[in-house]
Structure formats: structure tokens, C-alpha cells
Amino acid sequence: MSSGLNGDKIHLKAPKNWINDPNGFIYYQGMYHLFYQHFPYAPMWGTMHWGHAVSKDLVNWEHQDVAVFPSRYEDQNGCYSGSAVEHEGRMYLFYTGVHYDKINPENIHICPEMQFEASQLVIVSDDGFTFDNFQDKHVAIPVITDPAKGDKVHTRDPKVWRGKDAWYMILGSSIGYKRGRALLYKSKNLFDWKFINSVSKPEGFGWMWECPDFFETAGGSVLMLSTMGILQGDNGTECQTICTVVDFDEETCKMDIPDNYQYFDHGFELYAPQSAIDAEGRRVVVAWLRMPEPVDGKWSGMFCIPRVVEVREGHIYFRVHPNVEKQYRRQISSAAESAEAGYKVSMKLADGEGANIGGYQILRRGNRVYTDKTAVAKRKEGERRQFETPEMREDCYLDVYVDSHLIEVFVNDGEYVISNAVYGLGSDIQADEMQNVKIFTVGS
Fold first, then answer.
1. Are 276 and 299 in contact (CB under 8 A)?
2. How far apart are CA 369 and CA 97, in angstroms?
3. How far apart are CA 313 and CA 27, in angstroms?
4. Which backbone phi and psi does 136 adopt, to 5 degrees?
5. For 58, which DSSP code?
6. pLDDT for res 1
7. Cα end-to-end distance, the chain, whole Å
8. Is 4 left (phi over 0), alpha (psi -120 to 50) or beta?
9. Angle (nearest 5°) at CA 200 between 194 and 204
10. Which of 215, 288, 304, 394 makes an SS bond possible with 412, Cβ 3.0 to 4.6 Å?
11. pLDDT value, residue 189
12. Confidence of residue 394 (pLDDT cuts 50, 70, 90)
């Protein structure tokens, strides 16, 4: 099983070079499998492969060899985002294959004028580790030629799940590059898919919906969409992930999407989240941290802490997975004493109080939490550096998880979260009321 590649604790990072969207997240045969978009040749975006990591507990991760790579006409120019399901003991990976209409003679990894065709493919594995990229790929949904059923270029990222009597697939797409939409399919055997319905919203929900994810929780059904252009004019953060509670009818694939939504994360730097069901039946989600530049010129991209999704009174909470939370049990007096995996700062803020964590500023003002990463940001033109939550329903308890390149601020056990990429983080922790601050690191 082991590939000999490096492993990670708490935050899964690029083994080297580039990673982005989490793919194929699944608990399968006693192991968590997390695949991801991976360009194995340089720390920049390029022709996508599927990297692969596994964990027994969502805490300790071990990188595996590349699982899926281009080998067919349909995926010649990349194996893009998708999902995984288990059926009769086998793992099925669904993904978007891309074939460029033209090839850039100076850089084959960049598509000229964004002209390409997208197909949806499936590859099957008997053990979750071995994938025959040359003999066992099948086209699940060919290039869409009917504009009423999607766009031949901008249709991608299949998320598949089991319903009561059939398999279902949701795909992200666009209507005329003006409005995002989702396409819904149904299948009896995971290979033959029938288009059933499409859903959209008026302008204001972005021009393209990527990485759709639909799932059930005890408090309601949730739809997550990574929407392109939803924050128009906001340089660097136009594409954001939103989520909302929806009604879905399996027979007709009718999905009622309300006008209101909430952001997945208010740091605006996480994108393309994907969910799975954990060993205890909880719905868990991970997302990609968009980093402004590679670390030490060697790697770019990492994933947030796995988060349990819950719906309470119509609001979607994202709280730290218990397996991760219980790792931070050794109390320390300063960040300098923390383990390599990082540390957690727990505190309660009254109105007007704040804290400075290595240069990262946190402040409560009224019923909102504000953060400022200016001192630990890369000086990238147009990069947003200040963030805030909506008004809190509850008090203001914070659990701040600190990695050398990622800070995640959980407000009131996941009522809201602000996550940011950081560089050059210091080790000093200061707060207006230090007696309210406790610091924990990984270990006993």
C-alpha cells in the first residue's frame, strides 16, 4: 500500500509541485481515500492528474502514487475533478476528461482561447489503489452537443451518490457564460446515464457552477456550489463556494434552490470543497486552499481541516472533525513549544477585544469577527487582506487552528469559519485578555 512518499498530519499538503481541488473523497474498506488535482511536474497549474492520499483517521495522511492520468482521446489534456462511490466492493471514480481543440506549441499545458471539449469518464478499481488507466476507462457522458442540456466546454466535476432506487449525478455547467446551472442525471448501473433535469438561478449566482456537491444531513439537504464570478469586481476572490439548504425530488430531479445562501468560508481562500460520509456516518467536507505563490518554490496547495457539516435551524455549520479536535490535548504556554503539525488557540472575545497570532489579527466588533492578514500576506496586487463574518447568532468563542501556512478561525463551533493562507507567521501570541487564552498542540 505504501508508496514511500511523505506523509502529513492534520493538514494534507502537496507532496511536491501543484495540487488543487479535492476529488474522490470516500471512506472505503476501512480507509479514507482523498484524491486531488495534481500537476506533478512544477508548482503551477498544468495538465491535471489525480494524486492520491490515504488515512485511517483523517489525521495522519500518507501520499500514494498518481492514480489517474491522461491516456485516452477524451482526457488527453487532463483528468479533472470528480468523485468516488463504492458499489459491490469496488471503487468507481468519476471525473471530467478534457481534450483541447488546439495545442499551444509553446506550452502544451495551456489551452489556446479556452477551446476544448469536456467528457465525463469513469474508472473502476478492485482495491482503491490499483487503477488501469489504459484498459479500464469508460465514457459515462460524452461531450454535450445540445445547448439545452449543457455546454460542451463548461460542463464538469461529476458528483455521484446513491439514491433510494438509482444512482444520481450532478454536474456543474453554464448557460451562455451568463448564468451557472447544474445538470442532473440518473443511472441504474453507473455506466449508462440519462439526463433528467437542469436547475439554475437568475444572474447573481455566478456565470459558471463548478464542483457541485449535494448531500443529506439530519437538519436538511445541502447543495454546495463553487461559483465563478459571484463576487464581481472583487479582484482575486470572484470565484467563491456557496452553500444552501435545498429541496430535492429524486423521481423528477427537481431541485428548489432558495434565493439566500451562505459562504462556505468567510476567508474567501478555500475553494472546491467535497464531502464524504465518515466511519461514524457523519457528513465531512474538505476544501483546497488557494495559495498566492509556492512555498520555497517547491510546492503549492493544501487542504483545510476535515469539517463535519450540520444544519441547525436552517443554518449550515462546519465544525472541526472530532478526530482532529482531540489531537490538540497538550497545553503549552507559547507557540514556540508547538509540534510540527501546529497548534490551537482557544479564547472568548468580548466586544472590542482582539488577539494577534504571529501577525494575524483577530478582532470582535459588535456581533461580528474581523480578521486582518496584512502582516503575513504576500504583497500581491489586489489581494484581499481583511475579512469578516456575518452577525453571530451566539456568543463569541473561537478555536483558531494554526499551521505555518494556514490559519482557520472557527467561530462558535463552526457557526462561521474564516480561513487564510499565511506566509512568515511569527510565534508571538498576544491578546487583550490573555487570561482567556489557552494554547494546545498535538500530542499527549
1. no
2. 41
3. 28
4. -125, 25
5. S
6. 43
7. 29
8. left
9. 155
10. 394
11. 97
12. confident
Which residue type occupies 373? K
434, three cell numbers: 490573555
CA distance 432 to 426: 18
Please name the residues in contact with 200: beta carbons below 8 A apart, sequence gap of 6 or more.
175, 179, 180, 181, 182
pLDDT at 235: 65
DSSP code of 325? H
Average pLDDT, the chain: 95
Which residue, 133, 131, 99, is CA-closest to 116? 99
Q: Which amino acid is at 100?
A: Y
* pTM of structure: 0.96
pLDDT at 4 over 50: no
E strands, 166-234, are 167-175, 179-187, 193-200, 208-217, 220-228
Decide if 373 contacts 385 (C-beta within 8 A). Answer: yes
- Are 239 and 256 within 8 A, CB to CB? no
Place of cell 494524486: 51
3-state secondary structure string across 280-306: CCCEEEEEEECCCCCECCCEECEECCC
pLDDT at 75: 98
- Whose CA is closest to 304, among 334, 278, 268? 268
Residue among 317, 276, 326 nearest 91 (CA): 276
Lowest mean pLDDT among 83-97, 123-137, 371-385: 371-385
Whether 10 has a pLDDT exceeding 50, the answer reads yes
Cell numbers for 383, please give them. 489581494
CA distances in angstroms from 261 to 193, 210, 224, 264, 276, listed in the order given? 30, 16, 10, 9, 21
Determine the residue type at 323.
N
Q: What one-character DSSP code corresponds to residue 328?
A: B
Cα separation, 44 vs 38, in Å, equals 9
In 3D, which of 241, 240, 242, 222 has the Cα closest to residue 231? 240
CA 157 to CA 169: how far, in whole Å? 10
Judge contact between 421 and 290, C-beta under 8 A: yes
- Enter the C-alpha cell of residue 216: 443529506
Is residue 5 over pLDDT 80? no
Best CA proximity match to 346, nearest among 442, 438, 417: 438
pLDDT given for residue 31 in this prediction: 98
Query: How do residues 346-376 score in pLDDT, each as one tens digit?
Result: 999 999 999 999 999 999 999 999 999 999 9
Report phi then psi at 69, rounded to 5: -145, 160
